[in-house]
Write a structure and sequence with these properties.
Layout lengths: L8 H55 L6 H29 L4 H6 L7 E8 L5 H8 L7 H8 L2 E9 L6 H13 L2 E8 L5 H15 L2 E7 L3 E3 L1 H9 L7 E7 L28 E10 H9 L10 H9 L5 E4 L14 E3 L1
Parallel strand pairs: 1-2, 1-4, 2-3, 6-8
Antiparallel strand pairs: 4-7, 5-9, 6-7
């Protein structure tokens, strides 16, 4: 009778040995799996980081200035060449202006028309109606007499700017008065205000030389009476004289204390002695045509000071102006033959 299989002592020992050696293998396999999962996770995370970095780098590259190609450089050079040509054209235009080739001048300078002797601009303000009427009844012609004076070659106008509130009642009153009297020269680009007087003188000479072709351009304050025939005689004797800067020449101390009359905010520019340079009094000053043209051409860069006569004097220092000190134009003097006096 066949019995159940039996195991020998050696077989049992072999089996227990196999069992003991398989446990470390399982442990090693487990740790290998864990290590593989860890490495795979890190690789996946690194891949995501690389994608993120690549995107950031791409954005960075797009934002960085691109390297100019040869065509780009040629385009830049072309723009510079165009800019140079524009500068040259502006210089040519400036030269043309200095030689009298202005639109308004061409209209006024037709061969059939005689060149004017003078354009006289009498400063006025919005509140000076009574003063204007006084002048119209004394030395300043009005109506038909004003037209006849223009036929003699002398244009006289009250000079005024516009209100800060353009088109308000102040402007309307001046327009209405001008429609009746026809004796205003309105500076459309200038704001009429006491603190803007130095700029007003620049606007006056610049605009007057564009509107009338004359030998001389004259600025007169609104508190000055004029011997008109005496002034015309003085100008007639100087007809044809270029670069003439005519007036009652003076100089004086610069007022550096704020709040005092004639205070000059930029007093420190006049040196340690605080003394003004030689200049014509602002009550009545005369410029020949080429000097008025100089102001017109360079008006954008001409510096103004606190007072209009100082401003004009500073402009004349930069050109070859002929200073003519005529005592007859000292309105406060006691000379019998003076052509102006304080009203």
């Amino acid at each position: 009778m066949e019995g159940l299989p039996t195991t020998t002592k050696n077989e049992r020992r072999w089996r227990s040995k196999n069992l003991q050696t398989s446990k470390p293998s399982l442990v090693m396999a487990f740790f290998s799996c864990v290590a593989w999962l860890y490495v795979a996770g890190r690789l996946w995370q690194d891949a995501e980081n690389r994608t993120l970095l690549a995107n950031l780098l791409k954005k960075n590259v797009e934002q960085r200035p691109q390297v100019l190609t040869v065509e780009d450089k040629l385009m830049v050079l072309g723009c510079k060449d165009l800019e140079r040509r524009i500068v040259e054209v502006e210089m040519d235009l400036t030269l043309a202006k200095s030689q009298g080739y202005l639109k308004h001048q061409l209209q006024e300078s037709e061969p059939s028309k005689q060149k004017l002797l003078a354009v006289i601009g009498v400063y006025t303000g919005f509140g000076s109606y009574l003063n204007r009427n006084k002048f119209r009844g004394s030395w300043m012609p009005k109506g038909d007499a004003l037209k006849k004076m223009e036929e003699r070659g002398v244009v006289i106008r009250f000079v005024i700017g516009r209100s800060a509130n353009r088109g308000d009642s102040l402007d309307r009153h001046i327009d209405e008065e001008n429609n009746k009297t026809k004796d205003f020269f309105i500076l459309e680009g200038h704001e009429e205000a006491q603190e803007e007087l130095p700029k007003k003188v620049k606007f006056f000479f610049s605009t007057a030389v564009q509107n009338w072709d004359a030998e001389f351009y004259i600025k007169v304050d609104d508190n000055i009476d004029i011997d008109l025939e005496g002034l015309i005689g003085l100008l007639e004797r100087r007809r044809g004289q270029d670069s003439a800067y005519v007036g009652c020449m003076k100089s004086g101390d610069v007022v550096s204390e704020e709040g005092k009359l004639w205070y000059e905010p930029e007093w420190w520019k006049f040196g340690d002695e605080k003394s003004y340079f030689r200049h014509a009094s602002g009550s009545l000053l005369i410029l020949s045509k080429n000097l008025a043209q100089y102001i017109n051409i360079n008006s954008a860069s001409l510096k103004t000071y606190a007072h209009d006569d100082i401003s004009v004097g500073s402009w004349m220092m930069g050109v070859q102006a002929t200073y003519i000190d005529d005592n007859r134009l000292c309105c406060s003097s006691i000379r019998q033959d003076k052509v102006c006096s304080e009203a």
